[in-house]
Please model this.
Amino acid sequence: MAQFSQEFTPLPIEAIHDEAVARKAGGWRYVQTLAVNTEAGIDLVYSYMKDGLLENLVAKALPAGSAVPSVTDQFLAAFVFENEIHDLFGITFEGLAIDFGGNFYRVAQKEPMTIISPELKAAREKAAKVAAAKAAKEAAKADRAEKAGEAQAEFLAAHPEAKAAATGGRVFAPSDDEAVEAKLAGMDPEKVARVRAAIAAKAKKAAAAEQDAAKDAELEAKLAAMDPEKAAKVRAAMEAKAKKAAEAAAKEGE
Amino acid sequence: MGKATVIPFGPQHPVLPEPLHLDLVVEDETVIEAVPQIGFVHRGLEKLVETRDYNQFIYVAERICGICAMGHSLGYAETVESLMGVEVPKRAEYLRVIWHELSRVHSHLLWLGLAADAFGFESMFMHCWRLRERVLDIFEKTTGGRVILSVVKVGGVVRDIDDAMMAQVIATLDGIMDDYTKIMNTLLTDTSVKNRTVDVGYISHKDALALSMVGPFARASAVNYDVRSFGRGAYGDLADFRPILDDGGDCFARVKVRCLEVLQSIEIIKELAAKMPAGDIEVAVKGAPADGAQASNVLEQPRGECYYYARGNGTKNLERMRMRTPTSQNLAGMTSALAGCDLADVNMIILTIDPCISCTER
Model:
């Protein structure tokens, strides 16, 4: 048995009937007709199937109230869909085999599928605005990131000594420190003291981490120079020590 | 030859619990022409897609019809997944097909009961519906619902069936199979059934193709078309799938095709239960369908091929959702089968297309 696949192909409005004749002659099975209400007009989608290929032919943007030829002379099964589209979308089908003259569905509202309620319109406008705002925000964020990158590149070019440090972590342009100072100047003195203490603590922590890293690097270098068996023993001893320390810390926590 | 008279049939008729009206043009006892009229229960469900997001709409989709509820939620979910490029886990595909085939069993048993009732075989009606109850019990155990199951979601299913529960399901189906085989043999061999169905409402193979008929109605005229044979989802893992065909073209052939499809569905469920893969039952689906994106889908419902179409507009709400049900495709075939029949056979012919007008009007 054939594999299933689907395609969407444009269909010129004037070719709707000729296409139905060609499809019937080609042994295609008529699947359905549907309509979609869009801002540009009403789209009609005709579907045919052969050997697992479901081909949807899309006739775009028919003006409201327009007339198209019926395909019921080729495929009688289409009478249901054409009457339905007439009642719900207001498209007229010329030469319909079984024409209910607008009485197929008993609907309270004429052409109900073409009506966009004020609430829905408002919801769609809101969604469009939200999407636009999100896009603008993302564009601004990308722009800022680009500018910051440029500023950093400029700073590094002007201060070659900072280049080495830059590879290890983030480099703050002097403008950042200046901005912090400016901010602190306008603040409550007590708060300023707290902020300064926090900055100092952070710097101390960073320095301690750097020292630890340096110690580790030194130890690794020593171990690499040692006899592999001895190195393994040292490593095992170090791990056991670390484990013991962790256990003691956990006990203390309890 | 007498004068032509128009006899109205429905929308309220003892044989058909569906709001279908027919204007039957009769001469003496022979129907010359039948003009169907629907439109009594149009609810505008497709319009609701504009105010419900694509996850919420699945609950609307399965309320289109009380019999093919599972099929509609599955067809809708597959269409949205195709629109958003979502790939469903294998286990979820298996579970979906198992529940879908169970709905086919219950739908066909319901129909066989109604058909038996239509030709006056009351006890057969009771037996068919008794068996159908056991399928509804399986639904209740595995999903919590008997009619509206709400187990399918965009991206998978919401419930799993564990091995113990699956063993119970298979044991129940084995029990149903024994009882059902006896009922089926009676339906297919009893003279009173044949008197009312053989050579009634004949549709040739050529006409069935020309009228674009689908489902068991078409397969009873030897049209070799069943969406399941494309082998999509878990159907692709079946060792062998061949549509049930008959070349009789009459009401008896339609009864026979549906009878055999019940057995086929039970076999499919048992095979898939044995092959059930382990793993997740859903994937997370994020974002919204792209503006202008379109997808179509076909699914073999108990009554035949159902077509689904969705178009996105960049928001969580779809721009358009469309379901073309098998009954709307078969109405042309039904009017053709009615032309030239006896007035007394009208109800039998209408029943053999298994019309679902609520599905058709949505």
